[in-house]
Design a protein that fits this description.
Blueprint lengths: L2 H39 L5 H29 L7 E3 H12 L6 E3 L7 E3 L2 H18 L6 E6 L8 E8 L8 E5 H6 L9 H12 L3 E7 L3 E9 L7
Parallel strand pairs: 2-4
Antiparallel strand pairs: 1-3, 4-5, 5-8, 6-7, 7-8
Helix pairs in contact: 1-2, 1-6, 2-6, 3-4, 4-6
């Protein structure tokens, strides 16, 4: 598959997933509006009822804001020769996901290791993969992030592996590139905008996302990146 065809595939996958999410948000806001009208017409409506409706609407708006921010990160992902310290991007992604250290664990990352891509793009890709893993795993199940960077010179491969040992709902999956898996054995994941966004960002910066699953390791997502030149201080 050529780069242009692969980019077109990601565009189609992302458009479908985002449309699915937007439709869900619209339904949520519409339901909240209906509740507000019902509360307004019913005697005995309390402040708590109004607060609940407002909370539903605000949650949907927060999700839309996040989606907009992440799509902007994708838009700027491949337009420059930016290089970002991977440890910083992982730390920012962990902060964005905001879970306890017991649930989200990261092995030591070389502090000077840089990879190709903007800080926003890398943070978004890693945070999106983490969120997918958390949503697919039982509550409080541990998620682990490791980095394999045998060489740190520019152009060398860098692999970020995110594993969820307790996530086995997809069953056995032979290791495959994400776009290939979505087109073949895993069509049920095409509606997950987080997962697809991470794949699209990886593709835009010269990398890829791979997926695998078995009874021992659970679900494993690997983000393949390219080592970059450390930014000038």
């Amino acid at each position: 598959m050529t780069a242009s065809i692969r980019s077109a595939v990601w565009t189609g996958l992302l458009a479908g997933a985002v449309a699915h999410d937007i439709n869900n948000f619209v339904q949520g806001v519409s339901s909240a509006r209906s509740l507000a009208r019902a509360f307004g017409a019913a005697p005995g409506t309390t402040i708590a009822d109004a607060a609940e409706t407002e909370a539903i609407i605000e949650d949907d708006l927060d999700q839309l804001r996040k989606m907009g921010s992440r799509l902007r990160a994708l838009a700027g992902a491949g337009g420059s020769q930016a290089s970002t310290r991977l440890a910083d991007a992982c730390a920012d992604a962990f902060a964005e996901v905001d879970r306890t250290p017991e649930q989200l664990r990261a092995e030591s990352i070389p502090p000077e290791l840089c990879v190709v891509g903007t800080a926003a793009a890398l943070t978004t890709a890693i945070a999106s993969l983490l969120e997918h893993m958390l949503a697919a795993s039982p509550a409080t199940a541990p998620i682990k992030l490791t980095v394999d960077a045998t060489g740190q010179s520019p152009g060398s491969p860098v692999i970020v592996e995110i594993s969820a040992p307790e996530c086995g709902e997809l069953g056995p999956i032979g290791r495959a590139r994400l776009d290939v898996a979505l087109a073949g054995s895993l069509p049920e994941l095409r509606g997950d905008a987080r997962l697809i966004l991470a794949g699209a960002i990886a593709d835009a910066i010269g990398g890829a996302v791979y997926i695998a699953s078995d009874s021992k390791a659970g679900l494993v997502l690997t983000l393949h990146l390219v080592a970059g030149t450390p930014p000038i201080r």
